[in-house]
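Risk register update: the risk that structure generation would not scale has been downgraded. Supporting records follow, first protein first.
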Amino acid sequence: MKKSDKNIAKPIAVAMAAAIAMTAFAGCQREIEPSPDVTTAPPIVSSDSVTTTEPVTEPIVTEPPVVIPDPLEKYADYYEQNSDFIGWISIPSLKNSKGKLYVDYPVVQAADNEKYIDLSFEGKKSSSGCIYADYKVPITATSHADNITLYGHSMKDGTFFRKVLDYKNGVDFVKEHYIINFDTRWEENRYVVVACFLIGIYEWQDDEPLFEYFKCRNFDTQKDFDYFYENIMHRSYYLSDIDCKYGDEFITLSTCAYDFKDSRYVVVARKVRENEDISGYADTYVKNKSRHKPSILD
């Protein structure tokens, strides 16, 4: 009931009560005075009591649109030839006597790590296979693994990843060849070598817990990154002033070694940060005198 309705109903109720009382006491000598007339005044509404409810508009939060880069034109023909093509690996300073790069190859990524072990980029059977990226985390225009492992055979004729083994040759070699280029289909990238090490792939080859470097793909936490970084530096032939931190991106080159059965030689490089000056890094490499060696070599 509205406030004004209550004000009207009240005098009516009073009058009815008076009439009922007169009837009830008709035989009584007591005189019941009639109720005075009641004039109902209109309700007074103060402007101070009026509240106006304005509609509350919640701020609209919109995520910035995801910008999908266009594929690099220079790699268009390779993708048309093989849809598994995802990038290009090269070591620009590592050349033969004719000036040709030893490591300068297309990189593919398949649904597993078996397809390109003995299959060429052109889809033909080949003992050389192809340089391929670990299949677990797809490389796309907008995402990829924090650490991309690239596999390649170390062929006796010096092709594919054979020259990666030369990173065992000492500080002078890594100083000269510390820059590695790895482009995806959408982006050109440079990397600087931070670790080089020899390792086995089975527990019996070492007296320390097996370090499965090829499973270090994404660093979801600081702990994940620390595990990866501490292990590669623990084994690295070299140390340098190149710092690495959680949030950096890496590539890992992995190839067969011949120091013992089922051994691998691995080179890890960190992606060059935006506006980073890398010109002084070469002079900072030194031999790691306390590096861990697989115990099978003892």
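Supporting record for the second protein:
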Amino acid sequence: MDSNSKSGDNIGVLLLSHGSTLPFASAVFNEIAEKFKNISDYPVEIGYMKVSKPTISQAVHNLSLKSVDKIIAIPIFLADGIHTLVDIPLILGMKKKSIDPRTPDGVYPEGHYLNHLDDIDFDGKIVLLDCIGPDPFILQIVKNKVADVFKDSESLNKDNTGIILISHGSRLKYNSEFINELLRMFKEKTGYKTTLGFMELTNPSIPIAINEFSKSNDFENLIAVPIFIAPGMHTKRDIPKILKLPSDIKSKIGHDHHHDHSHSHEDVEMRFDGKIIYLDPIGCDPLLIDIIKQRIDAETNSTIIFK
């Protein structure tokens, strides 16, 4: 694959996702792709890093069959991390954008998935865009979700309710930078009592964040907002378990996509006995489609008119 050999107006769009052992995430990304197709004339494919199909290489091949000579690949990830800076560039046949903290020397152990990548069957140009980041539309989505909770409950108000934004966590700094900026924006625009917590890898953990938050604020209710695009093991099982909420996903179901880190959580007791309202992830919100449209517009200099 020569990422610079051809350039033309026949553009395809590649939506990049992680993949999940659960069907919920694929359903969300299929809906994202369909809604994007409805507002544009671009051929669109979804490519998954792991577990789900089609793989990224299969999605590139599918676009090549549609006579495109340029692919704009956009990671539908909220924040940069190992996946967007290392894994995806390598899968696309590009240079990685960061040193991999898992293996700084770039030598992966035998059996590691990055040692067994499929060739990219495409001789046109591939442009890899940045991840979404703390976009104002993401802020608006979170604001709308929280506002809907207050609208639907007469017993909730700013004085008796706290809000926690929950992020995954990463060995790299970018996830923390993203959620902290989103937190700053959210506080500035809403005035709600708000904090943040990480599921793993980054501090503060969710229990520690809630303990400190409830100790320094007087509230009876807590709205927990998972800042994830789509539902999956983390939002359906791991985070509810940390929050001591019921889950539809049995604990015996494991991650068979071979993460290189542990999903164990800090053994800290959460000391909050009020009501916890746990929201859904971002999902296929119309504002997310607008973000994708804006990013594609910027790359093409708006030369192609959307429907």
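Residues 25 and 230 are 5 Å apart (CA to CA). On this basis the risk owner (M.S.) recommends closing the item.
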